[in-house]
Amino acid sequence: MKKKILYTLLLTSIIGYSQIKLITKNGKVTFEASVPAFEEVKAKNESVTCVLNTENGEIAALALTKGFRFKIALMEEHFNENYIESDKYPKATFKGKIENFDYTKVGATFKEYTIKGKLEMHGKTKDISIIAKLKKTEAGLEIDSNFLVNTDDFDIEIPSVVSKKVSKKVNVILDFLLK
Asked: What's the pTM value of the predicted model, to 2 decimals?
């Protein structure tokens, strides 16, 4: 009898603890730095890790820079070697907090939240504030966001040869399903 109670308490604590953090290892981050009338400059990384602490709204994400895929292989090569310098700066990270977050109040329809934190990329860190939409689904917690990042903030140089073809204002789209 004592063993059954002990196992029940242990199982309950494990299940309860597992609900504190939600995670994904296949989050999607898409960025676009296209300029009208020129070739599309767009890439997607579908193996971004994101962790959310449901008790306090703390959130962290990690994207390996070599994980971004372009339609054109030469663009991917230039991105990794000349722009983001993936060998020198292999990852981009975000650590922050969802303001006024209460997991029990997240419903089945999207609701907007402000997320504030630090984005680190290309050896530079910048405080950012973004708007994200959150909702619960049968599969987990969905987080979607769309925001701009300025390449100058992270000392990412765009060579003058292509400066008219690549925007310094990069549109970033997040699509995470945390379980």
From this structure: 0.88
